[in-house]
Amino acid sequence: MMKEHDHTGCLRPFARLAASFSSFQQTYCIEQKEHFRELVQKQRPGAMVLSCCDSRTDPALVFACAPGDIFVSRAIAAFVPPYGSSAGACFRAATAYAVDALKVQDLIIMGHTRCGGISGLVAGHGDGPLADWLEVGRPVLEEARRRKPRADRAVLQRECEYLAPVFSVHNLLHYPWVEKALQEHRLTVHAWLFDLEEGELHNYNFERHEYEFLQEMPRDLVP
Ligand SMILES: [Zn+2]
C-alpha cells in the first residue's frame, strides 16, 4: 500500500486526486445516473480541443465541460506537426478518430500566454525529448524573429504565442481526413488563444489575419 501522506503529514497529490473522485461519482454516477449510463454506451462530443499540457489550461475546466462534451488531445505548446512528420503520431490518430469516427463539428487548437513550452522554444537551450518536440515549433520562432527582429525575449515569446495556434491550424489543414471533412463542409477548424493573465479568450480571424475577442473580461466584474 502506498503512503497517502508525505513526511509533513499532508496528503500526497495522488491521494488528493483519488479522494476527489468521490465528487465525480456523486455528480455523474449517482445524481446524473441515466445520462451517464447513455454516455457509457457511446460518446458523442461535438468538438475536439487540442491544448497545451499546461496544468492551468485544461480545456474541460476552462470550458466548464461535463463528461462527453469534448474530445481532447494535449501536446506541449499545442503544436501540431506537419503531416508526415515523425513527431505527433498520437495526435494524428486522435484527430483521425475525432473527425472520421466521432464526426466532431469543430476542431479547436488552443494556445495560451505564459506558455512554458513556448518559453523553452524561445530560450532555445536543452536537449532530450522536450527539445526534440519543441523543434516542431521552430518555424514559429523564425517567423516571430522575422516580424520582430529587435524584440527582446518577452516580446518574442508573446509573438510566438500568438503565432503558434495559427501555425498549428495551417499544418492541420493538410491532414487528409481534416482536408476531406472541410471540403464536405462538416468541420470547422479554429485557432484560439487563452490569455491566462487577462482571463480572456481570443479567436484568430483568418480573413482579417488578427485575433478578436471570443470572451472579453467583463470590466464591471474586475475589482
Ligand atoms: Zn503551454
UniProtKB/TrEMBL annotation:
Any coiled-coil regions, as ranges: none
Known catalytic reactions: hydrogencarbonate + H(+) = CO2 + H2O
Bilayer-spanning residue ranges: none
Cofactors, names only: Zn(2+)
Pfam short name (any one): Pro_CA
Entry binding sites for Zn(2+): C52, D54, H112, C115
Highest taxon of source: Bacteria
Protein name: carbonic anhydrase
SMART domains referenced in this protein's UniProt entry, alphabetically: Pro_CA
Gene source species: Candidatus Desulfovibrio intestinipullorum
Entry's Gene Ontology molecular function annotations: carbonate dehydratase activity; zinc ion binding
Comment on bound cofactor: Binds 1 zinc ion per subunit.
Keywords in alphabetical order: Lyase, Metal-binding, Zinc
EC assignment: 4.2.1.1
